[in-house]
Amino acid sequence: MTTEFGLIARYFSRPSIRAVLGVGDDCALLPASTNCTAVSTDTLVEGIHFFADVDPTTLGQKALAVSLSDLAAMGATPRFFTLALTLPQANDDWLAKFSSGLFLLADQFQIELVGGDTTRGPLSITITVLGEVNGAEALRRDGAKIGDDIWVSGQLGGAALALRQLLAPETRAVIDADLRARLEAPQPRIALGERLTAIAHAAIDISDGLLADLTHIATKSALGATIAWSKLPVHPALQREDLVVQRACALTGGDDYELCFTASMLHRDNIEQLEDELGLALTRIGTMMAGPPRVRVFSHDGNELKFSATGFDHFSRQL
Predict the structure, then answer these.
(1) Are 126 and 87 in contact (CB under 8 A)?
(2) Can you tell me the distance from the alpha carbon of 231 to that of 229, in angstroms, rounded to the nearest whole number?
(3) pTM for this structure?
(4) How far apart are CA 230 and CA 137, in angstroms?
(5) DSSP character at residue 79
(6) What is the spatial distance between Cα 201 and Cα 214, in angstroms, rounded to a whole number?
(7) What is the rounded CA–CA span in Å between residue 196 and residue 190?
């Protein structure tokens, strides 16, 4: 029979690399640094953030990826993380796969598990990540300037389209594997975030939808923002859908975990060079400007598009 501490020892204990003291004590002991420590916490709940039948290996990867994406948005280098895992039961097969996926991504980004908690109850996963960044260079939401270009990485809307297809019985069984991976195995843009500290004025990761997240930058920076629908890098699978679906997924759909950032137009060449170096599409979609802190979207014919909701909100009925 698997016990709580046996579970931790078997699936989540590893020798410490950078930590002075890691998993297995009342607290972790982490080395001090002259830089700032960036800290972020995310919780994933079954039925809200993932389906009950999701592959546990994939789930382990996503659970860490969404938190690493927050570090990417600050330009921070991952160092440590903690895991609070609530399980309905201690299933050895599930735990082996979940921890395998978790550590696969942890090893990729050289981030070390240093503690956490396990409890019994409905399945939920809470991860706290700690990263390191120079405080003067950290990317924040309040740093956008008038005239800044607005950029996004990667492609938008794929994860939201995948969710739509998984929720529909007629498409769930035939969903494209790459499209499903956009939802269930997002790629945190750590390398991009680290490089943007010398280029960008403000940044955020796109977790709740482009409009919602760019609005956070606009609000914190006390500026307006305009973006052109025609410039958005819409996922190829989404381009085959009705225009209403395209706009809903690319503008207000969540779970893309790409970076949205602003930078001076003087850095356009630097950003294009960065695109080549990282092998990651970086697309200029709009401009920050003086005005009320809101985001306006214009179609190719110059008409402003209107939306009843800007993105996902746990406590709103509008999803």
Answers:
(1) no
(2) 5
(3) 0.89
(4) 32
(5) E
(6) 13
(7) 10
Judge residue 181's burial from the number of C-beta atoms within 10 Å of its C-beta, 0-12 exposed, 13-18 middle, 19 or more buried.
middle
* Mean pLDDT by groups of 10 residues along the chain of 319 residues: 71 80 57 82 89 92 96 94 95 96 97 93 95 89 96 96 89 84 94 97 95 94 97 95 94 94 98 97 98 94 82 47
Q: Is 26 exposed, middle or buried (0-12, 13-18, 19+ CB in 10 A)?
A: exposed
Cβ neighbours for 107, distance < 8 A, ≥ 6 positions apart: none
8 A C-beta contact, residue 183 and residue 257: no
How many CB atoms neighbour CB 301 within 10 A?
A: 6
User: Could you count the other beta carbons within 10 Å of the beta carbon of residue 278?
Assistant: 14
Alpha carbon distance 294, 142 (integer Å):
14
CB 206 within 8 A of CB 156: yes
CB of 152 within 8 A of CB of 283? yes
**Residues 13 and 107: beta-carbon distance below 8 Å:** no
How crowded is residue 303: how many other Cβ atoms within 10 Å of its Cβ?
10
User: What are residue 46's DSSP bridge partners?
Assistant: 50
Sequence-distant (≥ 6) Cβ neighbours of residue 201 within 8 angstroms: 143, 144, 145, 148, 261, 262, 263, 264
Cβ(271)–Cβ(225) under 8 Å?
Answer: no
